[in-house]
Design brief:
The protein is α+β, with helices and mostly antiparallel strands. The chain contains two helices and four strands, in the order ααββββ. The longest helix is centred in the middle third of the chain and has 8 residues. Helices cover 16% and strands 30% of the residues. It has a four-stranded antiparallel beta sheet, with helices on one face. It is globular.
Length: 87
């Protein structure tokens, strides 16, 4: 009886959310020359970063029918130097 009570208790498992899905209206506001703070305010936390987190951020884009693409935002001296859409 004592052991059967253990099955009622399960450890708390928090839902881990990493990154943010970017919307088209957000992408239209993204421009080269923006600071890392401006990009993070506009797009949120990146899902992935490059080898150097201050140089390359990757954001997913959810499209219709469950398809995903991603945006790569590259920085040079803390400013957006390049924005690439990949499928």
């Amino acid at each position: 009886m004592l052991l059967s009570g253990c099955a009622l208790f399960t450890p708390y498992e928090p839902e881990l959310k990493q990154g943010n899905f970017v919307k088209e209206e957000q992408l239209r506001q993204l421009q080269t020359g923006m600071s890392t703070e401006q990009v993070q305010f506009l797009l949120g936390t990146p899902m992935l970063t490059g080898e150097s987190p201050s140089d390359r951020w990757i954001y997913p884009i959810h499209e219709n029918e469950g398809k995903y693409r991603h945006i790569i935002v590259e920085f040079d001296n803390g400013k957006v130097s390049r924005i690439t859409r990949e499928s």
